[in-house]
Amino acid sequence: MKLHHPLMGCIADDFTGATDLANILVRGGMRTVLTIGVPSEALDAPLDADAVVVALKSRTAPVTQAIRDSLEALRWLQSRGCSQFFFKYCSTFDSTAVGNIGPVAEALQEALNTDFAIACPAFPATGRTVYQGHLFVHDRLLSQSGMESHPLTPMREPNLVQVLQSQSRAKVGLIAQSDVAQGAATVLERIATLRNQGVRLAIADAISDTDLLKLGEACANAPLVTGGSGVAQGLPANFRRMGQLRDIDAALMPRIGGPAVVLSGSASSATNGQVAAWLRSGRRAFRLDPLALACGEPVVAAVLDFTKAHEPTLVYATSSLDEVRRVQSQLGAARAGALIEGALGQIAAGLRTRGTRRFVVAGGETSGAVVQALGLKALRIGHQIDPGVPETQSLGDIEPLAVVLKSGNFGSEDFFDKALRHLDGAAA
Ligand code: ADP
């Protein structure tokens, strides 16, 4: 089979955002690979994909580092043959007072030798709309949505034109919803006007998926698009119109058999419900005790002994908020987290050595720890199991693994069982 080089190269400022974007591109018909950081050398496995998403950790990094990492990602994506680039950030425009959205967007523009890009975080399906440049989270302005007291990226100004201007060297403008609603041709006229006025970045309004699709169409020839995952919904159609996408199920992957495990380090309420549902059904489970870990008890070895190859085990630290607070007051939040994440990582690596090939992981930070412990470099994105949570397979390994990474509040109550059944059934 002839391998195609990727068409679209994406740079995401965090891991869950990268997964979300990759999931959307697959649903739009683009076969998509996600890399964890910038691959240090060419991936061994051939990248037979229409889109590649590089997941960085640049959202709250110092500006110079965010720019450096993003440019490194860009160069790697360019070397893979991508022709259009997407800079993905959060749909609530999460950024610090100095950046990193504006500085990274400008650095990418300079490297791509392009003088204009839209900035559209809108994602109406998740309640994020932008009107007259103002970002709403459901019925509230961003600055009254709770985001104003975010610990790392407090958003106190809802007018994104001002927010982006304060982070950017060049002039920032607005493409208003009244223009977006008229369609791609009007958007392109507006862009031409803005460029003549010296505007280099423009917040694009969108209050519906229809708006996003029109914006996507207007970006068909844009070297760089910036925004949340929402606006990426409109991009696959451009490649399809140009006959560059094959008419196949972009999520199709071969089935990976072998022992499976569920590892849960998330303390969110959804995950608590999922763990409770698993325990209620009487399935095999091992509770990780953070205090036992802190005392140096051989917990990891006990889990490896307990885990049976033929029956999936749930290994969980998940517990009620009261219990988490109690543990944190004894160990400190950072130490408790590090102990649990470290143990789950060691358990994942140990199980893999013993033959486990399928991993379902709950928790954003926990997922990061497990991905690192397993040494995963890249994931091919498959079908969605629950909204925002796709099945994935590792790339570049001698023997690939099936991996499902679920952050905190995602997934229905029977998610663990559903994910395992899904992996059983993934068609060849
Ligand atoms: P989520 O996506 O739900 O936020 P994360 O994995 O990102 O999940 O974060 C949960 C954090 O809470 C992790 O650092 C994890 O180690 C920690 N944690 C989980 N269970 C406990 C517990 N019982 N006591 C203390 N900390 C815990």
Topology:
Elements (H helix, E strand, L loop, with lengths): L7 E5 L2 H13 L4 E5 L14 E5 L7 H17 L4 E5 L12 H12 L4 E4 L7 E4 L2 E4 L2 E2 L18 H8 L3 E5 L1 H4 L3 H13 L2 E6 L4 H10 L5 E4 L1 H4 L3 H6 L18 E5 L4 H12 L4 E3 L2 H5 L4 H8 L6 E4 L4 H11 L1 H21 L4 E5 L1 H10 L4 E9 L2 E7 L6 E5 L8 H11 L3
Parallel strand pairs: 1-3, 1-4, 2-3, 4-11, 5-10, 5-11, 9-10, 12-14, 12-15, 13-14, 15-18
Antiparallel strand pairs: 2-16, 6-7, 7-8, 16-17, 17-18
Helix pairs in contact: 2-3, 6-7, 12-14, 13-14, 14-15
Bound molecules: adenosine-5'-diphosphate.
How many strand segments? 18
Percent of residues in beta strands? 15-25%
Into how many domains do the coordinates divide?
2
Quaternary? single chain
- Label the CATH architecture of the largest domain: 3-Layer(aba) Sandwich
Strand order of the largest sheet: 9-10-5-11-4-1-3-2-16-17-18-15-12-14-13
State the CATH superfamily name of the largest domain: Putative sugar-binding, N-terminal domain
- The parts where pLDDT drops under 50 for at least 5 residues are none
Bound ligand species: adenosine-5'-diphosphate
The major sheet is characterized as:
15 strands, mixed
- Label the overall shape: globular
CATH topology tier name of the largest domain: Rossmann fold
Report the C-alpha radius of gyration, rounded. 22 Å
Q: How far is it from the N-terminal to the C-terminal residue, by CA? A: 16 Å
Mean pLDDT: 94
